[in-house]
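Notebook, p. 212. Picked up where the previous page left off. The plan for this session was modest: take the two constructs that came back from the sequencing core last week, fold each one, and keep the raw output in the notebook itself so nobody has to go hunting through shared drives later. Recording the first one now, exactly as returned: residue sequence, then the structure token string.
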Amino acid sequence: MYKKIIEITGLTVILLFLFSCSGRNLFRFYSDEKIGFVDSSGNVVIPADFDQADEFSENFSRIIIDGKTGWINKSGEIVIPADFTQGGNFFNGRALASKDGNLFGYIDKKGGWAIKPAWKKAADFSENLAAVEDGSGKAFIDKNGNIVFRHDYEFSGNFSDGRALVIKDGNFGFIDKTGRLVIPAEYKFARDFSDGRALVVIDGKGGFIDKDGELAVPANYEYTASFSDGLALFVRDGKAGFLDKQGKEVIPPMYPWAGDFSEGLVPVAIGQFIGFINKKGEVVIEAKYKYAESFKNGLALVMEEDKIQYIDKKGKVRWSTESLKSE
């Protein structure tokens, strides 16, 4: 069942997910193959007029109109016209963008070039740095487009907790914001830091290191996810449980599937359905859903029978596809 629900998750995430913007929390919905947004009470704030619209980030949502990229605000107004062949979401006041699909730069929130297109490859900003590549090689730049340092790693990820994942000779390690390799590239697999811990694989088992590279949680697990809301999922004998940052197993492995903790709750499979438990392992929302996502901004996306819904932390339905039929 663990594998089955993961597969369902991959399909459903494509269809519908949550997002927030400043001043209010908005949640994405589909109607007649178009995307719109409702608020936490289920009221339609932005009609379903868009073929594609991303999560709001820093008050902007990336949209695509007739194959071109633009950005809307929380009122649904197009504030940066869809004149770009490619574009990303705003992070640290910058959004990745390209007008010709060949060279990439970054725009500011007025749609002007904060960093002119000069990069063959580029990633989103994270902790005020972005990974880029030009004819001279790979580098990280600051928000003004200045090169902070160059590097020759096979791969570099985004910065998180002051560390960026890199791959050297097929092994995983971490650099700091000066480009110094502060955690040696000696792991066969690793993930980005989250909550001060990074997942690493040692001899085929998962554990966690701290920002100094010290092993904080022994690598004893057949599967582990990154920390979220202070706890990390682990799997033993095909069942999921949760451990804290010191490695204490606070919720024993007893669930055939579980998501990530968020806002104090986590979706778990109980029998043939999914419900929500708290950090004490207590069931707080009945297991009656075919699919469920973690809470975000007070609501969680669920599927009950054939209905897509947003529920609050008491399990009350705040919005449902049934509401579209009544409009």
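Okay, moving on. Second construct, recorded in the same format:
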Amino acid sequence: MYKIPEFIGPFKDILPNFINYQRSLGYDYQKPTVLRFKELDNFLSKYGYCKIEMTREMYDLWIAKKGNETHTNQGRRCSAFTTLAKYLISIGYDNIFLPTPINNKMWKSNFVPYIFSSDEITKIFRVADKIVNTSHVDTPTFVIMLATLYTCGLRISELLNIKLQNINFTTGAIQILNSKNHENRLIVASDSLRKKLIEYHSNYTCPINVEYFFRTTDGTQVPYGTFKTLYHRTLALAQIPKKDNCRYKYPRVHDLRHTFAVHSLAKIISDGYDTYTLLPLLSKFLGHKHITETEYYLRFTEENYDSVKTLTNNIYHGVFPKMGDDNE
């Protein structure tokens, strides 16, 4: 846990308690978030604020755009101010300006994730095993990581942190531990992926002193940067187009997770199931803390259904375990 720094402004005695309180609720207040509040503390000191108050004037000055910074970064400052304001109100302080959704909505990102088509997914997996390894991660390791990431809809951090003891090779169950907001969950790999995991494990016997299931040739955890480099090489070889008018050169690794969610919902809709009945199941599978996070994908899928419904062709054969299995 990142150490709480010393604060010097008017909230110097409140901020440590606030950070500890947020952590007790399960929020991941590590270095980037803690330093955001240290930045706020320095800001208050710099501009001579000495009372325990949060005003509209203070808010406007705090979120004012700095040079060429992105809306996302402004949004983070807005979020920090709002979260602290709610805390101060909850413990009884007056004279606290609480930004409303109207105040905040201008900082919401209009970023649209890249959703891969079925043809693009097929191309990616056709060329993945042709990537020349120069990074201490052999090709079979990269391919099985890529397959697990997409077919299970994982966050990249969740994939990298999977350990041998987290996988039940009989049932296909995989434990995802200490994920976002310190949440744990259990997912079930498709039977086809389960067999691939068994094959990978039998060919790459894990030494007793090696902790992670997916590892480098040195037996260490695969670095995110290494995986991302191999992923970008794969996209280039598969001739996935570079993104125009975007700060990202290629679709992000995280876009595979977005694609999984949209493809899953498109499949649910095309099969005639009640989306709002199955949405909580998908939400749990994805590890969302609130179902509203999953509803974002539902809105995206419904609004773009005519263009999305063809994305699921031939993707889902063997991806999801059958309901009612003896091993479920």
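Notes on construct two before I forget. The longest helix spans residues 71-90.
Flagging for discussion at group meeting.
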